Amino acid sequence: MAALRSPDNLARRLLSMKEQLQDKQKHVTELQGALKSVMRQLKEEFGVKTLEDAETLLQKSDAELKSLEAEFEQQVEKIEGLMRS
């Protein structure tokens, strides 16, 4: 038990913890940069400023796509009906 608390062992553990903390801080910084980049892209390409706005736009776009798909399917069926006549 005394070996676990030796000054050398404590120093190594503290150094290891410090390195882990620095790695985590670097990772957080990278993630923040990626988030800023994505948010800038959302604003430039789609005119949205928040994730909530992006979600709303996505839902509207999804509904519009489903409507267009249904309309397309109806047109295909109409054409097929005309071809059978």
Order of helices and strands: HH
Number of strands: 0
% residues in beta strands: under 5%
Terminal Cα separation, in Å? 92 Å
**Based on CA inertia axes, which overall geometry fits?**
elongated
Q: What ranges have pLDDT less than 50 throughout 5 or more consecutive residues?
A: none
**What is the overall pLDDT average?**
93
Regarding quaternary structure, how should these chains be classified?
Answer: single chain
Q: What is the C-alpha radius of gyration, as a whole number of Å?
A: 28 Å
Counting helices, strands and paired strands, the structural category is mainly alpha
What's the tally of helices? 2
Sheet with the most strands, sense and barrel status:
none
Helix content: over 70%
Structural domains: how many: 2
Q: How would you sum up this structure, described in words?
A:
The protein has 2 domains: 1-47; 49-85. It is mostly helical. It contains 2 helices and no strands.
Please give the structural blueprint.
Blueprint: H1 7-46, H2 51-84
